[in-house]
Every structure is written in C-alpha cells, then in structure tokens.
Protein: DUF2490 domain-containing protein
Amino acid sequence: MRRPTRCHKTVTLRVMRPLAPWIARLALLGSLFATPSALAREHNHGAWLTAGLKGPIGRSEDTRWNYVLHGEYRAYDAFDGLRYSVMRVGAGYRLDHGFSLLGGLDRHHSRLVAGGSLTEVRLWQAVQWKHRFDNDWSFSARARIEQRDFDKRDGTYWRFRTKLGLDIPFSTRDNLAWVLSVEPFFQVHNPNGSNAGMNQVRSFVGLNIDTGEHASVEVGYLNQYGRVRDGADIINHMLQVNLRFSQ
Structure:
C-alpha cells in the first residue's frame, strides 16, 4: 500500500482540526438520549424498515447528478400501534470537496391508533458533506429544511434537522463497519404560532454489511425521542434495518 505523502498528511490534518468539534458534538449528542429516555413517561417498541436506490442521471461517467428513490415502513408499540409509511423521490448534485446539494418530495401516510389516517406531503432541501480519513473512518454532516403540508391541517409547517454520522470500518473485515449517528429536529414554524423548538432526537448505533458491489444492509438500534407538547414525552426503541442499493 502506498504511504501517504507529507503533503497529503498536512492536508488531512488541516481537515481534521475543524472536524474535531463536530466529532465531539456527535459523541455528546449521542449520549444525551439516555437522559430523556430515563425521564420519558411513555416507551414504545417496534421496527423500522427502509429501502433506497441511488444512481446517476445521464449516461456520462462524469455526471454530477444522481437520483434517489426511497421507501420506509414503521410499526410502533410492538406492532400494535401506529403504522407509518414513506415514499420519497429526490435528486442530488455533487459539488467539490465532498459537498452535495439534494432536494426532493415525500409522501408520508400514518394509520393512527385511535382510528383514521393522516397524510403529509413534504418538500425538502439539504446540503451534505462527507469526508474519509486516512484510517478509512468516514464522517458526514447533513443539514435539511422541510416544508410539511398535512391533509387535515391549514398552512405549511417548517422544520430543520441536522444529522451527524460516523462510520468505523472493521480492521479485519473489509465489508463490515460500525455506524453511529445522531439527528436532532427543530420545529421552526407552525401556522398556529406555537413554535416548539427541538422536538425530536434520533440516535442510532448499528452494523453496516456490504453484501455486494452495489448493495449493503445496515442493522441496528434506533432510539427516537419525541417531545410531545402538553403530553408525555415518548421514547421509541426501534429495530432498524436499512437496505441500500446503487447503480
């Protein structure tokens, strides 16, 4: 294996210095879910399945455009509670230095425990940054803004979410890696005027398995903390399975 040049090491150190605070925040935020978990008055258990396909737009090998197709199904409260499904279509544009711009449209459908259903149509825009270190650790940061319209509510709800992630590959197995992430959600605009601030945190720890050149499976534990206005805070303990495919 070719040893990194002195110039390459210098560039890497320059990148790592500004990254240090972000990695520290990731560790700190990831530890915070234990505190609200202990204080929450309602705990649910369930499963969360996602499947995604990503590929280039256009025939050129140098294209910077890509498409994203994504689906989810969530079953809460030991499969006796809320059912939630998501269909997503989006596109991304790859910039230099690990940055990407993304945007898309979602349709979310909930089957409520009390009966009935709720449908949401969501537009979203995001900027993402990824960096791989010399030891093959990968750090990612994503900021995303969403505009949410519900079929039984007036006006558009705005939400901001930011996700920090760290992938740590096994030294003995090329196809295995630990995956850590934390994602707080902030309600920034409600049409009724009651902005709630941070109302959700998702913390995930799992294992990524590369099953082929264009496929991987991610399995792990998701802790989903929800701050309910005028109600009991909720913790969802979820088995999460993510299927990822690429062209």
The mean pLDDT is 85.
